[in-house]
Records
---
Amino acid sequence: MRGRGPVRRAAAAALVGGVVAVGVLTAAGPAAADGTPAPGQGGAVATVGALKTYGDAVIHDEDGDHRISAGLFEMSVEGGGMLQTYCVDLLNPTQKDAKYHETPWSGTSLGANKDAGKIRWILQNSYPQVNDLAELARRAGIRSGSGFTEQDAAAGTQVAIWRYSEKSGGARGVAVEALDPQAERLADHLEKSARSTAEPSASLTLEPPAVSGPPGALLGPVTVRTNAGSVTVSPPADAATSGVRIVDEEGEPVTTAADGARLYFDVPADAPDGTAELTVHASTTVPVGRAFASESRSQTQILAGSSESSVTAGAAATWAQSGPVPALSARENCAAGGVDITGANAGAEPFTFELLGVEHTIPAGATRTVTVPLLEDQAYDFTITGPGGLERRFSGVLDCLTRSTDTGGPNTQILSEPSPATVGGTSEELNLAATGSSGAAPLIGGLAIGLVVIGGTALIVLRDREKKPAHQD
């Protein structure tokens, strides 16, 4: 018998009681209401639906055996396309109709899991990537003609994934078995056979997500990374009035690009201090093994299959005539337990700000990263401001563990129903709102972020320490 990992008593109670529907915890929406991806985000954005192909599994816990459903979720992609996913957070909830975005493993529990590569191997070598059920059964040693079904294949694959995904952070994991003997045989085969494979590349991303410099120069490069044959390049929304163009290194306008292409913002020399964004779009299949993180507290998914799907990515530029000129971006960092705020200062003066009582300085021409610490399952919503009207908003939920930290309510993902449980809680939400100057006196060369824990007392403030240049009014 496999070693039994602990399952919280609250989770066991929820399992016994059936599917629970309580208040939904919601986080702030995406950075741009028009669907433009926030700088630093790239790939597919999708909404989770129900379990489509599934069987039954059993969690073995100190309080007894608890039956759950195990199998493939279906997700609909914004802009067109469908995804099939398995979950990697067995003891976390799934929120019905939760929105997900493609994300690196480092932004999920997979980043701290030494067995994440084995999970990808399972995905590549099982259902639905191997959709010949007779061949899959043969590999698992299942007798021919035994009635091995798609439901058995999906359940066995999900159980094998759970046996590795629930070991995040060195934990022993959860003891889980497929109820059907054939599905269990497949799970055992996949668990035993799995070999570590590399994390897949993003379907589409731009590197770096933000650039800066003086007007009159080509700001960049921003490099396209994609598995699509080509991408469509959309210029800034106000390009007709601002005069900002998206060009190649020769200064020629770019409307389409391929993997590895280097894009630049061509900013007129007489342009006032300001910002601009570009967006790239493509249609491609998302690589198997890509993680999908929710914008609310809903369990992380991992991709098992993709139709031709719409993917997008964005990048931003900031320019100023003088003083610090920061390019700002943010991303979740599970290894550090927070959100990394990265500033690259292309200006001629240092860029200085304070975080938790510690002063940080980014010298002219240098890049620094500051990590804003967050709690597990903590919703966050922060806006970063800078010169020329720079304003970047990032929101989400830090989901770095395979188990919810909410001990006061249900935290299992699904029972014997064909759709995920809609759950939520009262976890405190972090609201990071811009602070600093007024609209009449814009913050020049600065960064101001306030983290406010709603219903709590914690407060973190990052505030610009730079004085305005003497020549400014």
Note: The longest strand covers residues 45-61.
---
Amino acid sequence: MADQTAKIKICVVGGGAAGLCAIRHLVGNSKFDITAYEQTNEIGGTWVYVEQVGLDENGLPIHSSMYQNLRTNLPVRIMNFPDYMTMEAQEPSCVSHQEVLNYLKDYTKHFDIRRHIHFNTKVEYVRFEPSEDCNCDRWHVRVKNLKTNETEVRYFDAIIICNGHYFNPYVPIIPGIESFSGLILHSHAYRKPEEFSGKTVLVLGAASSGIDIGIDLSDHATRVYLSHNNDRLTGVLPSNMTQVMGVDSINGTTFYLKDKSTVNADAFIMCTGYKYSFPFLDENCGIRVDDNYVMPLYKHLVNIEHPTMCIVGIPTIVLPFPMFHMQVQYFLALLEGRVTLPAKSVMLEDSTLKTLRKRHAHRLMDQQWDYFDSLATAAGFERLSPFYKLGYIAWSFQRHANLLRYKDSKFIVSEDGKNVELILPD
């Protein structure tokens, strides 16, 4: 895709887990010249817990969505990057956000990643610039040093977007919400359960964060309502935590629910997810987001309009770190010419909406294993070890059955990686 006598200049946007993974695979290849930009002063992205909410010292929105007591909802053994298996926790198999951040710091040191990252540097603007004199399109990237306020424009042959997808809250429109006089926040700004002591809290949403935050609150709040429209959870919940239907409207402290019933609460936490956001991309980059459906992407990854750009980490309900590992290797194989893209019409068909709702377009769930295998097969690199899939499936079953204690299970992988054993706590 570029003059093979010169190094391929690659820009990596973001120093979270996906960005670190991208740099790690670039570092070992002499064909690439790497520059990475991270707008905070440290690596780790959303895994960096910061107590403050709102804006940071540079006047930018706080990126992290970590809360004080967060533990992973996956056993860390299957969260490891396949080429750096150092998170070994067996019992309990789910660990704190600090332990995951320590792992990312160790990964960064082990692969000598840090020297390629420009910290406190915000990517402000990215534009595609087609070449008129040779077959070497390029990317115009303007960055700003947040300490000096100086801006700089650099040009790259390829760009890997790793800006994270858990920082721009999705806030639903709820009639009457302006009449609510209690505390309202999105899970992005939730930090400590003690702040809700003695309160009745309505938590909207029962995906991972809604359930986990609801349970976290239960030791301090008087009552927790878990409000959602999904199938009812069948696992045991704390005695002061009750499932109710989703919120239809609000009047004062009264919540009118979808089944016409009402509950009263004096705090409201929206665990309603996040919006994909790429505010720095010019329209000519070709990327559009419609109700969280990012398009046009081939294999949920490669920008079909300009295949020297990829966006890492779009699929959800997956094993994130192993997915980054697979996606990055596929894209680098594409840049090296070891992967040939199909016709544009085939890629556009691959990117068409295949779910009933646009906002579910990138949910992979059980499809993630075929997806990972397709990347590995096309680019000729190693597939994930079987224990990732076996562990994920066993874990999903256990989680639904034992919401309160599943994180304390013992997670054992056989030496050959072909068998997984889960032992519940006594």
Note: Residues 320-336 form the longest helix (17 residues).
---
Amino acid sequence: MTQPAFRRARSTEAKQARETAILDAARDLLRARGVRDVSLGDIAAEVGMHKSALLRYFETREQIFLELTAEGWREWSAALRADLAARTAATPAEVAGDFAATLAARPVFCDLLAQAPLNLERNVSLEAVRAFKLLTLHEVALIGEELGRLLGLDEAQVLDTLATATGMAGALWQIASPGPRLRELYTGDPRLAHAVVEVEPRLHRVLTALLTGLRTPQRHVP
């Protein structure tokens, strides 16, 4: 089957439209297959263009996914901050619940969170990494304002909380999505039942413990 002709974008608007189409196609494929099972060729075929043509818009497959990770950070941050902003006061468990619920509702983002430091950031330009890191720091600072207001967390505690939440969400999503053959193995043997993980309740418990500990005054041993 031959690829349909895909004319190169000439104007800025046309280029942006092509980039949006590529990101949309990649996002759809990620929802269906997950990061590990989507290739650059898959994305090109979904858009209807050759891989060589796609590389005029994005330097690597990983850059496409890193763009989607940045998009995920913006969307998740906005949703989390909206939930936190609606609270005039909150317990560590309630804040942890908002974190867990908003992350678990975004499985593609969780998948990308796990892949970003392992693969995505290592296969793009330094400028792409810099832009991504600055964006995440901006979103962390915005979330930190709410965590400071509700729980009195300082900057270091905010960073610890965000690193734990996003790192655990990425790792737990991978564990919770083993594929049909492994899931059948785990559910079919009672000794392996612990391998079947639900992201939201586990993340809620871990973050509740973390936030409770951060709010507990530390006694200094002389």
Note: The first helix runs from residue 12 to 33.
